[in-house]
Amino acid sequence: MRIERIVLFGQAFSEGGAEAAADLAARLEAKLAYLFLEDSNLLRLAGLPFASEIGIDTACWHELELSTIERTLRTLASQAQEAVSSVARRLRIPWSFQVLRGIPSQALSEAASSTDLILLVRSQPYVGIPTRGEALAREIVSRSGAAVLYLSDGTPVQSPFGVVFSGKASEIPTLRLVAALARDFPGKLVVLSLDSGGGVSLDPEVQELLQDAPSSTLLTGIAPKAQRILRAAACEGLGLLALSIGDSPLPPEEIESICAKALCPILLLP
Amino acid sequence: MRSDLRLDAKTLDRRIDPSRLPFETTAELNESPGVLGQARAMESVRFGVAMEQPGYNLFVMGPSGIGKRSLILRFLEEWSAGRTVPRDWAYVFAFENERRPRALAFPPGKAGEFAEDMDRFVEDLRVGIPAVFDSDEYRARTQDIEQSFHERREQAFSELRERALKDAIALLQTPAGFAFAPLKNGEVLDPESFSKLPDEEKEKIQSRVSALQEELTKVIREIPKWRREAQGKLRELNRSLVRSTVSNLLEELKAKYAEMPAICAHLESVERDALKNAESFRLPKEADALPPGMILSGIGPDAVDAFLRRYRVNVVVDQCGAKGSPVVLEENPTFSNLFGTVEHIAQMGALVTDFSLIRPGSLHKANRGYLAIDALRLLSHPFSWEGIKRALRSRQIRIEPLGEALGILSTVSLEPEPIPLDLKVILLGERSLYYLLHEFDPEFSELFKVVVDFEEDVDRSEAIVVPYAQFLADEARKGKLLPLDRRAVARLLEEGSRIAADAKKLSLRGRTMTDFLQEADFWARDASAPIITEAHVEKAIAAAEARSGRIRERLREEVLRGTLLVDSEGESVGQVNGLAVLEAGGVLIGHPNRITARVRFGSGKVVDIEREAKLGGPIHSKGFLILSGFLAGRYVPEEPLSLAATLVFEQSYGMIEGDSASCAELCALLSTLAELPIRQSLAITGSINQKGRVQAIGGVNEKVEAFFDICRARSLTGRQGVIIPAANVDHLVLRRELLEKVEQGFFHLYAVQTVDQAMELLTGIPAGERSPEGRYPEESINGRVERKLGEFARRARSLSSGEAKT
Fold it and tell me: Which CATH class is domain B13-34+456-547?
């Protein structure tokens, strides 16, 4: 799998997110793309006759006007663009900036492609209808086929690199990607093999990948529960945990729970 | 010539017989001379210093160079040794009012110790408290507080959001806050769809939104309160952590200084302040962004240090190691040097200060002791005199920086708590200053009740010779000079009389004597001599005179070249050699002056040309008027004085002051009236009274020597000499060369008591006394004068009767 673009999604600029995305783009020799999203819910709200907002600090109500909202969003976008260009220039990476308008999950899914790695920062500021980052991340992967890296602001991507593997063939590309990361960075590869009810029988390709890694660990018999997986990841001190969600035995809420509670960055793949 | 008026060489010889001195060299004199000839002054000092009532400060007066300062300081040092050592003083931060630093008193030597203890305390805090704030425990507890605040807020929003969702209304985050909007299929209802809704539906939505907005308002208005609560918890956490550290550190100090209630109270204040300002022990993050030098007090990497400065101690008086009460000599009594000051430092273009920049003055250092100041310097510095008086009156040392008091410096400053003042001020100055202050400053006599009047000379008795020699020996020892042999000492004693200008006195001008001693030592060493001899002293005296002799030389040269007309031979009517003395740079220079008189018939007016030309001072004019009175009273008393006379100092172009030439002027006038020539080989000095008695004058030695120098340069004939008042004989301490010539009969000195004696010497004619019939002998001086004046009177009478007839 070749990552061509590192996509940073934002509704307001996050310095930590931009730094992490740019750093990753530089490492993977990918292009940095910033997708600034203007939530159309907000624009609709401004058009309603009773639209008004309360200041978070002043607790004062005042009317919302469409022109004011648009101007404010433009300001936020230009600030984000300026910051991204500054980071990209510093790291000498190609970059682009695009303003999207729409419902966040839809707009982002449409803008992303399967060769993108989308960065979502947990504490990222947003405007519009609050969206749970974990749900958004899962939805983008499901809809666009792009990979999503879900991380906390300031948490680096580092080894050991873990991957949740349930033995399905559809998960092999994910395993392959993480093995490649372990090889390139380089770092330890940790495979968290989920307990499928039967015995452990590893595909020869999986065995080969494990052998090719500079060092590797295979953890087997892990129950397909978020809590168990997170505990195993914490024990191994993982710096990244990859999950293939397309054909995963983990239900969506377990996947979102892993995203929400993990101490390390979570890489979601189709 | 009346030889009975001539002074013989023996009378003029002021030498001291060296064989009377009971030592070979001063190296044998090891005893301290004590205080020479200043019994009255030292008694006054003893009284003034011992007197403990307020206002008994001392004014030590006398001419400079007499040794006032060294004597007083020596006395004070001896007096103060072993007396109670005064308390230490320190300034500390005043927690209740930081503009008014507190003054704390300590037993001697303890302030420094307390300052060190507090420095250690500050160091312990500086290390200990940040360590507490850096601990995992603290981090976890603060995160817990923050997290709890965030959760509380999020929960409130979340509950509201849930309630809104039940009515299909979303809580949206806007760029600046929050807003509510109706939802349809998970998205905000677009305005077009909303407008198509039935009115009832619209109203329902709007009403629900309004209700939610009120709830949201309540939530948002609660947030600051929750934040404050969280901050309060954080503050309490900080305080509890600081309390344990501070209290542990202070307990030890409180126990150590338990006997000192003021110190304990200060430590309590420190503890309270540390707890109150626990936050200040943390390094603010914003300081990291500031470049060095741009750090404000209280912000920056040094912020904790800056804050902790308030717990340090500024020791202003430290008596550690003192053995008695302090004796301070303030050489430069500026306002700041006397009363202390509050310094400032520049920070970000502003001048800032705190209690640690309070600097003590000499009043602090001398408190409960003695402070000596030169009076003239004190009066020369603006506000110093007023400040001293204020401090003595109020018995407090109040530090008020002068710049601020005058409004020159407009910046934040301090008002340090005044310190109680109890000290003796000793002013040293000239007599004239004392009298001026006494006359013009009513407070002076209230505050300086003790006057210490230093004598300038002492009687030259047998009893003083040895102590004086001991004084010279002591000075030689202190100055690491060669010892003096007895002849050198005798010569210096003789010079002591010359400086005193009195053969019966010895000068107490220690500085002048020490100067001679040092210069004699120089010449002795120059000649590689092991001791100072009479020749070295003689050389030192001669060299000193030569160094200051340029004006004297020039005057003599002008006389010898005939530019200034002064005869030393021959006779002339109405012309006499007067003697004047001028002072330049502290040196007296004598020089002869020709005085001439002209008379003619007139209205009885005697004109002093100097006075008319406004070149005569008031004393000179007074002498001249006395002269006129003498003339009118002695001759033709029953007739009006009918002459017109003029008198002048020839070739004098500057101011003439003093009456020492009045006798010479009278002689010139009498010579003119009597038409008797005056011997130009004689010069005369003396003042005259209305009865014709000759009175003492000043500078007699310099005057005599000046005429002698002229005569010697021309040729001593044995007829030359100087007439002086008999009252000045004791003041004659003449140069040895002159004495030799007197002894050899080449030069003469005559002492006269009356103008008649002077005239007889000058003319060689008897003055004449009034007979029982009331007439002077015809050819006597007085007879000739009276005859002349009688002629003038007759002419005046005949003229006035002629006028009456017409």
Answer: mainly alpha
Separation in Å, CA of B220 to nearest CA in chain A: 6
Is B233 labeled as catalytic in the residue annotation? no
3-state secondary structure B300-368: CCCHHHHHHHHHCCEEEECCCCCCECCEEEECCCCHHHHHCEECCEEECCEEECCHHHEECCHHHHHCC
* Probe site for chain B from A48, A71, A132 (most B CB atoms < 10 A): A48
| A143-157, B1-15, B215-229 — most confident range | B215-229
Which ipTM was obtained for this model? 0.81
Q: Is B703 a catalytic residue?
A: yes
The CATH architecture assigned to B131-279 reads Up-down Bundle (1.20)
Residue B150: CB atoms within 10 A of its CB come to: 12
- Bridge partners of B685? none
Q: Are B6 and B760 in contact, with CB atoms under 8 Å apart? A: no
Q: Could you tell me if A61 lies within 8 Å of chain B, comparing CB atoms?
A: yes
Quick check: A53 contacting B, CB < 8 Å?
Answer: yes
In angstroms, rounded to a whole number, what is the distance separating the alpha carbons of residues A43 and B482?
Answer: 109
Is B185 in CB contact (< 8 Å) with chain A? Answer: no
Interface test with A, best of B147, B150, B172 (most A CBs within 10 A): B172
Topology annotation, domain A161-269: Rossmann fold (3.40.50)
Mean pLDDT on B234-252 = 87
Q: What's domain B38-86+322-454's architecture?
A: 3-Layer(aba) Sandwich (3.40)
> At residue B627, does pLDDT exceed 50?
yes
Averaged over B84-97, what is the pLDDT? 93
Question: Strands B721-725 and B748-752: what pairing?
Answer: parallel
Reference B760, options B694, B661, B690, B687; nearest CA is B694
Length of chain A: 270
Q: Which residue of B has its CA nearest to A66?
A: B191
Residue B805 has pLDDT above 80, yes or no: no
Residue of B362, B413, B628, B660 with catalytic role: B660
Show me where the domains of chain B are located.
13-34+456-547, 38-86+322-454, 131-279, 554-799
Contact B194 A76 (CB under 8 A): no
Selecting from A42, A73, A103 the residue whose C-beta is nearest the C-beta of B172 gives A42
Spacing of C-alpha B439 from chain mean position? 19
Can you give B679-712 as a three-state secondary structure string? Answer: ECCEEECCEECCCCEEECCCCHHHHHHHHHHHHH
Q: Is B176 in CB contact (< 8 Å) with chain A?
A: yes
Instruction: Give the pair of three-digit tokens for residue B293.
Output: 């030098």
In sequence order, the 6+-apart residues with CB closer than 8 A to the CB of B490 are B15, B16, B17, B18, B21, B534
Q: What is the pLDDT confidence band of residue B291, given thresholds at 50, 70 and 90?
A: very low
Number of helices and strands (H, E) in chain B?
28, 30
- Structural domain boundaries of chain A? 5-151, 161-269
CATH C-level class of A5-151: alpha beta
The yes/no answer on whether domain B554-799 falls in CATH 3.30.230.10 is yes
CB contact under 8 A, A129 and B191: no
Which residue of chain A comes nearest to B176, CA vs CA? A55
CA distance A169 to chain B (A): 36
pLDDT reported for residue B295: 42
Higher-scoring residue by pLDDT: B357, B302: B357
CA distance A51 to chain B (A): 7
Q: At what angle do helices A226-236 and A252-261 cross, to 10 degrees?
A: 30
Domains A5-151 and A161-269 belong to one CATH topology: yes
CA distance B74 to B191: 103
Q: Which two tokens stand for residue B701?
A: 């030695």
| CA-based nearest residue in chain A for residue B189 | A44
Query: At A70, which amino acid appears?
Result: E
